[in-house]
Amino acid sequence: MSLVMEKIDPQAVELTHEEIRRYSRHLIMPEVGLAGQKKLKAASVLLIGTGGLGSPLGMYLAAAGIGRIGLVDYDVVDYTNLQRQIVHGTSNVGQLKVESAKARLLDINPDIEVVTYNEPFTSENALDIARPYDVIVDGTDNFPTRYLTNDVCVLLGKPNVYGSIFRFEGQASVFYAKEGPCYRCLFPEPPPPGLVPSCAEGGVLGILPGTVGTIQATETIKLILGIGDTLIGRLLLYDALSMSFETVKLRKNPNCLICSDHPQIDRLIDYEEFCGVPSHDHELESAGEGWDITPKELQGRLAQGNHIRLIDVREPHELEISQLEDATLIPLGAFAARMNELDSAEELVLFCRTGARSARALDLLRTAGFRKLKNLKGGINAWAREVDPSLPTY
Ligand SMILES: [Zn+2]
């Protein structure tokens, strides 16, 4: 039984007759019952992110009757979100995600309270936002926020329900330093920047965050009810292609920088600096000052008859969606090996879908001594929006 439930006082709340009817299928199970349902109502859960993981998390936690749900996000709903972020609908495109999600959760269950934080979760606000909540759930899936959430939870003594997703594979665990390891016990250092692609770069099967987010919601409910064996001390690995689940035992690191007996970290740090990447799930679209060219600028240079070689660093299957005339395809993964096909005397413009992969290819060329280089800012998607609307964006 977890320590989490000790702080939750089911005596503090009552259920109305409507609520008793709503939760009937919980109430008839001895593992939940009236006492358990009151615990759920007395409990508060903070969801960081209202995207792929946050969607099923928020909807199931609302339906289950969690009394207070906090939502942190600063984004607006985009068409590319709808393939997996099922808390948002087509009519919500362009709205603030926290407002869109709040409306959906309150439609599922008007008896709960939904608190919104329309701001990024950062070292400056994270402790204040998280402090009033019993359980913290990380639904953001990027490294700076993952370390930030971990450290916030260790410093505040709260459980951190973790999930991560990539393409067809997912992971979940509960990091709770009072009873088991924390995320830093497992991964003291973040991976080198760029080594682990984000879902925005690598893609994700739309259903995958549904499965992983639902597992996170299940663990959250179990923590609050104090039932079953939670994922504290275990990492769940899910592979949708082979449809397999495995669990790996996790150990507390006696030298962990934050949760050991002699912690060296006693306050929040700069997590973007620590991880070397920005703390959002979007791609960077720029190669840095002086190295970008906008679609309009490129159109102008080409119209003037300048000889410019266009290098497409996307994957071959992406050419089926959109392509630029006369571009040479060198996928980013093959770039280092095929750089010798390029001439440093030629003027080169690199592009990909949104400008992130091409910025990395540009870095490789710059390191190799190339100077006549530009990155198409915003990628072929920006070109489609600003220059050639006959091309689709994706
Ligand atoms: Zn630790």
Structural class of the secondary structure composition?
alpha/beta
Contiguous runs where pLDDT drops below 50 for at least 5 residues: none
The chain-level mean pLDDT equals: 94
Tally the helices. Answer: 15
- The string of secondary-structure elements, in order, is HHHEHEHEHEHEEHHHEEHEHEEHEHEH
Bound molecules: zinc ion
Compute the CA-based radius of gyration: 24 Å
* Beta strands, count: 13
Distance from N terminus to C terminus (CA atoms, Å) equals 46 Å
Describe this structure in words.
The protein is α/β, with parallel strands linked by helices and 394 residues long. It has helices spanning 17-22, 24-27, 33-42, 54-64, 97-108, 126-130, 143-156, 183-186, 199-202, 208-225, 271-275, 295-303, 332-338, 356-367, 379-386; strands at 44-48, 68-72, 113-117, 135-138, 160-166, 169-175, 234-239, 244-249, 292-293, 309-312, 328-329, 348-351, 373-376. The longest helix is centred in the middle third of the chain and has 18 residues, at 208-225. The site of zinc ion has 9 residues, from helix 8.
